[in-house]
Recover the amino acids of this structure.
């Protein structure tokens, strides 16, 4: 039966996500670059907690060095799809960081424009 296997996989994924967050929170290390390439923050999704204002303020921001850069994939960013998650990720980051740059690229295999959002320590020249 497929359903119990899916539940087990989701449970294992949830354990890994909780472990990852705890590891990041407990570390004293600061980073020059942090890349967030995780699943979109969809309702009932496992990764939504990595896209919240509180996560950015309390966990991510303290882990960036003074010259640190953070970049995250931000989901579909086409004319008809940017409101799915791209806009909310960008707007949430703007509430926490001063210099936030959205950018997009057309991905042929997705048949869509995909977005990323980058946090910089200073403004672009």
């Amino acid at each position: 039966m497929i359903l119990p296997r899916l539940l087990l996989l989701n449970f294992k994924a949830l354990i890994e996500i909780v472990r990852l967050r705890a590891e990041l929170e407990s570390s004293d290390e600061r980073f020059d670059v942090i890349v967030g390439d995780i699943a979109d923050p969809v309702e009932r999704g496992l990764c939504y907690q990595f896209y919240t204002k509180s996560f950015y303020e309390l966990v991510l921001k303290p882990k960036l060095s003074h010259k640190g850069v953070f970049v995250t994939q931000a989901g579909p960013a086409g004319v008809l799809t940017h409101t799915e998650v791209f806009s909310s990720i960008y707007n949430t980051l703007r509430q926490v960081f001063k210099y936030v740059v959205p950018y997009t690229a057309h991905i042929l295999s997705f048949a869509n424009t995909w977005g990323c959002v980058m946090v910089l320590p200073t403004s672009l020249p």
Summary: Confidence is low (pLDDT under 50) at residues 1-9. The CA atoms of residues 30 and 63 lie 5 Å apart.
